[in-house]
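Predicting holo structure, glycinamide ribonucleotide bound.
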Amino acid sequence: MAVLASGRGSNLQAILDAIAGGRLAAEVAGVFSDRASAQALERAQAAGVPAHALSPRGFASRAAFDDALFAAVDALGPDLVVCAGYMRLIDPGVITPRAGRVINIHPSLLPAFKGLHTHRQALQAGVAEHGASVHFVSADLDGGPVVAQARVPVQPGDEEHALAARVLAREHPLLVETLRLFAAGRIALREDRVHFDGRPLTAPLQL
Ligand code: GAR
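Done. Tokens:
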């Protein structure tokens, strides 16, 4: 796989640790970031994984940047591109031909709370349950078919940082387990629907 990450890279670290620990039969062929200062790049280097920074500055358009980024990604020949804390929208012209080969982890129970500040959104909405989702990336922001989710109860008096930390702790095993299923050939996107063990999923896997 190739991993795209903009910041801290704890989800990337969970992937690298699972591979190093023999819990995920996969390889991270490269890590790419739109921010040269991303901690994710240091984590990649520490694991001996090629790390690449590409700044959107200097590109005339989103499409031009994404074309350049995905040309570099494609050069590695990944079966899957994993957006793990990648905070940029990807141009539909780049995503559409790669449908089923790009996944994203998002910190909410999609379709609830798309976009940014999802924990704040959840607290403001007063929901009893929050969580994280792994979905195939489509041209719609945070709108592609959901593969798997982890549910986290909201506690009385919860505040944003505490809730975010509890969700993050569930994101790591959620992402690793979803990648395990993908690597085992058990998950695929066909005709815009997630298939699990060859059958269309009627609801996201609960992991
Ligand atoms: C994670 O919570 C991830 O779900 C979220 O950013 C964080 C990155 O943490 N992604 C998004 O909000 C994407 N829209 P990490 O850099 O430590 O993996």
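The two ends are 21 Å apart (CA to CA).
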